[in-house]
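A.,

Following up on our hallway conversation. Structure tokens first:
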């Protein structure tokens, strides 16, 4: 029979071990959360998302103009070479996106470097009937939406967080404002009306957002703490968004024909 004192001691040791494990897990998660500004991967992801906006805009303009112009002039046969040119350049740009995604996000996307058939005509038919050809071309204007979303999150979250983080350095300067300062406090109005027989039943809810005026150093330090938290959260959100962007690029671009890769292999 095991003495009661020994059982109690063993239970205390088990509880202490479980407590240490929880503390260690919490410390690991806290370290992961706080260390995001010091990781190289964070800034590669940020650079990729910031580049996605101008690149996506250029892709969107090129594809929409090329396709619309080519389809509009197809009736006079001039549009066919324009469509072929748009397709060829689009596939090369998709190849560049594969390389960029692998270099900056460390996401390898395997391309297709050969076409089915021995004759040129058979190879062309194989190219235009492959769904991966069109998913690669569709990825180019879609990247504009991805780039715009990443650009808005990055600029809004990082600029707001940084301005709040350095607030203790300039909070007492007169005539200086941080953020959007409208003439009146912004309001959000929610309205719901339901018809019931001859009655119109409605519900109005108005939410008014005020502002926080910083006039003392303790408030400025508190705002700086909020800004630091906002920066860390924004960086983690951007990292997650970059991972989703890499997954989207792999789904759309993998196994698509890549003339860019063909040229690189021949060099």
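Then the amino acids I'd put at each of the 267 positions:
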């Amino acid at each position: 029979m095991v003495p009661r004192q020994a059982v109690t001691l063993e239970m205390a040791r088990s509880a202490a071990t479980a407590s240490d494990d929880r503390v260690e897990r919490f410390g690991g998660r806290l370290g992961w959360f706080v260390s995001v500004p010091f990781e190289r991967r964070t800034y590669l992801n940020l650079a990729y998302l910031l580049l996605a906006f101008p690149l996506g805009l250029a892709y969107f303009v090129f594809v929409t103009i090329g396709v619309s112009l080519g389809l509009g002039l197809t009736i006079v046969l001039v549009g066919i070479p324009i469509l072929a040119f748009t397709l060829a350049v689009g596939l090369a740009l998709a190849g560049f996106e594969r390389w960029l995604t692998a270099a900056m996000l460390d996401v390898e996307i395997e391309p297709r470097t050969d076409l089915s058939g021995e004759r040129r005509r058979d190879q062309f038919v194989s190219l235009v009937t492959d769904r991966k050809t069109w998913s690669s071309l569709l990825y180019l204007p879609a990247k504009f939406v991805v780039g715009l979303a990443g650009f808005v999150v990055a600029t809004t979250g990082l600029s707001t967080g940084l301005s709040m983080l350095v607030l203790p350095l300039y909070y007492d300067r007169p005539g200086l404002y941080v953020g959007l300062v409208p003439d009146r406090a912004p309001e959000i109005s929610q309205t719901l009306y339901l018809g019931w027989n001859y009655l119109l039943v409605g519900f109005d809810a108005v939410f008014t957002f005020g502002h926080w005026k910083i006039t003392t150093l303790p408030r400025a330090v508190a705002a700086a703490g909020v800004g630091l938290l906002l920066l860390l959260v924004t960086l983690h959100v951007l990292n997650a968004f970059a991972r989703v962007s890499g997954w989207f690029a792999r789904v759309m671009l993998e196994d698509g024909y890549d003339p860019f890769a063909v040229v690189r292999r021949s060099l």
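The mean pLDDT is 79. Curious whether your intuition agrees with the design.

B.
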